[in-house]
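ESCALATION

Customer reports they have been waiting on this structure for their group meeting. Please prioritize. Original submission:
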Amino acid sequence: MKGERCVLLLSHSAEPLCTDAVAGALARRGARAVRLDTDDFPAALALRGELGFPGARGLVLDDRPLVADSVWLWRVWPARLDPRLPAEHHEAAQRESFAALRGLLDLLPGVPWIDALDAGRAADDKARQLRLACDLGLTIPPTLITAEPAAVREFFAAHAGQVVAKLQTPLRQTMRGGGLPTRLLRRDDLEALAGLRHCPMIFQRYVPKAMELRIAWVDGRALCGALDGARCGVDWRYECSADWQSHALPEPVHLRLAALMARLGLRQGAIDMIVTPAGDYVFLEVNPTGEWMMLEKELGLPISEALAQALLRLANDSQREACKP
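Update from on-call: job pushed to the front of the queue and completed.
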């Protein structure tokens, strides 16, 4: 098709839902989607860079130049290593594979991303998120990030034992979730905190909830689902008997979230918030590439369509800028 847009989708080999949905939405708009499963590189993905010699073609996929008008970054997963590779070489192989892939993707200069790899990695800093959210007028829970057992005990006492503990990053990357659940800290736990010296954690005052929100943010749009707070436990990902319901954010909350996402440099993200019994909105975190398919499937929220629309708009805007004299 003349003038057909090409969008590069960065995903992984075990992801069958969100990536296919975005590819389908692009196809319905007459665009072509090229999917790269990042864990296939380098063993099963013929991707290379050619620079600085006669006939060099830049980024090459399957012996053909790879030209994209925009890029959607959904997942960059560690390389699937050959099982015959000795264990002592795994760390170096993973590190070098990621460094090579990152460098190769830089051979798409001037191409707009949702969202750039470095932007997403920087935005994933939970302390930075909370600091910016607070600066922008969003309510956050009292928070302690520490490896000091004594500080945790003091924090626990200050909040009458109503404290949750959680990790800042997943322990591993899997489709079934790779972290530990956010859980209430028990008094018995206070005597077993020596391990913090090896693994600092986040501690927050427990926030009573009327609703727990997952907000799929796409280029300024908030597509929001809500769970009954009484039926989703401390961590809805692991203990939930509630069904998703649609929810409309109040305009002041939406505006503050828009300002936060702009400060983080993100056009997409999955934002977690709590609505308290008093009706207050409390910000917890944003996952730059957090899951949203359950909202699209159960509520019909057009998240993949919104992403396709944003990717094509960015491609068109970029071309117009390039054509200016």
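Sent to customer with the following note: The chain has three domains: 6-111+306-323, 119-139+208-291, 142-206.
Escalation resolved.
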